[in-house]
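Example (one chain per record):
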Amino acid sequence: MSIRIDTPESNEALTEFVLFYDRVYEYRSARWPANLMFDLANITGESPFARNREMRPFVAWDGDQIVARALAVVDWRYIRHWNERLGYLGMFEALPGTEEATVQLVDAACEWLQGQGVEAARAGGTHSVFDTPFAIDNYDVLPNSFDWRQNPPYYHILLKNAGFESEKGWVDYHIEVRPELLDRWRSALEEVQRSGYRIVPLKEVPESRRVSEFTFLLNDTFKNHWGFAPSTEEEFALILPALGPSGVLDTSVIAYGDGEPLGLAWVVPSDTSAAILEPGRKLHDSEKLNFLVIGVREAARRHGVATAMASYAYLELIQRGATHVCYGLVLDDNWASRHTGEKLGGVVRANRMSYRRNFSTSARRCGQ
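Predicted structure:
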């Protein structure tokens, strides 16, 4: 059958675009479902996450069925921050055996990105709203969160055949709770507190300051982190209340020194209630993991603040029944963060990859 590439526009077509995700992953014994309302709000521009971002969805049809999809994104926040004209191929999903359809889909998306003045495209970047890095091993476990990729192994062949190159590797740290680690975490927390730092859960940060300080800290501590794009207070004014029932205000913290906010740990307790399991499939405790993002301002680094904030969160998670905790995704070459994860007791659970397609070196693509 002939392949054709379309841009969905109607609500019905965009809904089909989002729900294609469920079709791709129905083979898994444990999976997260598509997040229809959240994804539609982003794609249609109704969400604060769409501000200063241009997007166009693409689908590949083979006969009367969709076989691949992608969302082309021009992120002006990223471009202004890094002065790099980079776009994104987000929300990429494809059925097996769709090499030619994927090539045509990616070419169409990249041609549109070039038309917006973009010089390269990243797939599997760090924008959790639109994309996260691709799994390259440990494919069968349930990812930590619904927005982490649970891709099948054949995606790497599809992406490479469509002109992408490996750009950045990531490691995913997890920790099995053991008695000696409890002592280590308590000691790390007490030591930092004796040094004059205060580790304050978000629930105790005045509501009038909570979102602004949280957003400021995330943007400041990650401003030099590869792939970073600034977040907005409008986004976290939406996220934090939405995550409130999970206990995020108890497990997430801000570190203060001399009254100044110096670091944050954004920690969301595990909630696998939305996961879809095949009959007889049970989740192992090691699949019931928290989400974690942690950052410390430059003036407070190398003082144990990150370790203390994570320790506080882990001790709180354990009170909630956690037997395994997550330190999160870390760049392969971010050894400062990797050492913190290892100091906390973490070991590598899985590896992930971000890809890049440079238009200047892929002359056969995008109509060049």
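Caption: The longest strand covers residues 165-176.
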